[in-house]
Amino acid sequence: MNQITVPQIMASKGRERLAVLTAYDFQTASMLDEAGIDILLVGDSLGNVLYGLPNTLSVTVDDMVRHSMAVSRAAKRALVVADMPFGSFQTSIPVATENAIRLIREGGAHAVKLEGGTHMMETVCRLVEIGIPVMGHVGLTPQSVNQLGGYKIRGIDSQEAEKIFKDAQSIAQAGAFSVVLECIDADVADQITRALNIPTIGIGAGTGCDGEVLVINDVLGYTVLHTPKFVRPLANLRAVITEAAKTYVSNVKGQRK
Questions:
Q1: Residue 86 domain-assigned?
Q2: Is 182 part of the annotated catalytic residue set?
Q3: What is the pTM of this model?
Q4: What separation in angstroms does the CA of 135 have from each of 59, 221, 226?
Q5: Which is the catalytic residue, given 98, 106, 160, 182?
């Protein structure tokens, strides 16, 4: 089984949509890889779904390295992309470079993902220059949730739509191999997708993107937290796991000493 490469991801544009899911542990990543997922994203969303945090801002580089190691060990086919968490790349290019190298060298990731648009161009350029593939992320950027004023659809008004469009173009020009469009008006996402020469990966951005990414816990129906409206769970593992645990409790308590 051959591992998917960054050039293959780029060549998929206009030919085949990309199936992307988050993964945070070895066992889950193994199953997703076997199922044919193209990209396994070790998302900083692990702060929410694994650690019960209210947002992603407390996630550290050490956290991301640890979970990237587990996922990368499982991936035989899928490209592994690790999120750069809040504070790991915004302060300076040297800081971003050092942390990105850790995710590749220690975490075993094949690429990194970072949030931001035009103001991140120099950082993206530098990472690409030293051989680190970069996936961009524009629109609703969770690490900027305090500045954005919450989680809501972006790009509804023309001024914001134009900014997101320029952000996506800038990231592509800087050398990113793909870009996530999160919670963007579907028409705007479609326009961006048609304008860029790199794949767009949507999440809550309609069906016009070159691929889609979702949080695995939402897809499998075992998240304890809020599930976004645009997600249609394909299973209800929370109910299955809870029922199995209840049966176990009953069996144990019913046994004689």
A1: yes
A2: yes
A3: 0.92
A4: 19, 27, 26
A5: 182
